[in-house]
Design goal:
The protein has one helix and 17 strands. By secondary structure, the protein is mainly beta. The protein has two domains: 34 residues; 154 residues, lipopolysaccharide transport protein A fold (Sandwich). It has a 15-stranded antiparallel β-sheet that branches. It has a two-stranded antiparallel ribbon with strand order 1-2. It is elongated.
């Protein structure tokens, strides 16, 4: 075999080994993913997954996607525990939304339930909502509906930011138009601007 033929053989072998490696990796990972609705969802019912009370458990899960307006969202947690049907219990969930105009919204809490089919995150126990690092809100519980671009809370909400403070008995926020509507009595303290 001449040097030229041997070099071509080595180059083709390298490329082929990379393709085979990727195919093997995908074949091993394929049973853990569901590719319906152009979204990836995690199936934690694997026989290899650790269990708690006969329920599958995953450490540091990550759910992510893009909504119909090309806004990116991800939901991460310290731990996910299989509940009934497509519900997954989350410890310390954090939901991040990055809007097309690079404005960020983060929602975090101590506990949550992720409903994979409906794409709804129910969060409770010390819910914090941070909008573009300028405004911070605190409430007991909230529902983040990814499909309908809504964040809804029926408990008291306290917001503080550059312009002042606000307190209301509940809220409804639309992530598409980035507007928030308050329910019940609302108290506002506006900071004096220099």
């Amino acid at each position: 075999m001449t040097n030229r033929k041997y070099s071509r053989f080595v180059a083709i072998s390298k490329k082929l080994s990379i393709v085979i490696s990727v195919c093997l990796l995908l074949a091993l990972m394929f049973p853990f993913f569901d590719f319906s609705k152009s979204q990836i969802k995690l199936d934690i019912k694997s026989s290899d997954a650790p269990t708690i009370d006969n329920r599958s458990m995953v450490s540091h899960p990550k759910f992510y996607g893009i909504d119909e307006n090309d806004n990116k969202y991800e939901i991460i947690a310290a731990r996910a525990l299989e509940e009934i049907q497509d519900k997954i219990s989350l410890d310390h969930p954090i939901a991040n939304i990055l809007f097309k105009d690079n404005i960020e919204l983060q929602i975090n809490s101590n506990k949550g339930i992720w409903q994979q089919i409906e794409k709804v995150l129910e969060i409770n126990q010390d819910v914090n909502i941070i909008y573009n690092k300028n405004y911070k809100a605190y409430t007991k519980s909230a529902i983040f509906d990814v499909e309908n671009n809504l964040i809804i809370g029926a408990d008291e909400i306290n917001i503080s930011g550059d312009l002042g403070k606000l307190k209301a008995n509940g809220f409804r926020a639309n992530t598409l138009d980035k507007k928030i509507y308050f329910t019940g009595p609302v108290a506002v303290i506006i900071k004096k601007q220099n």
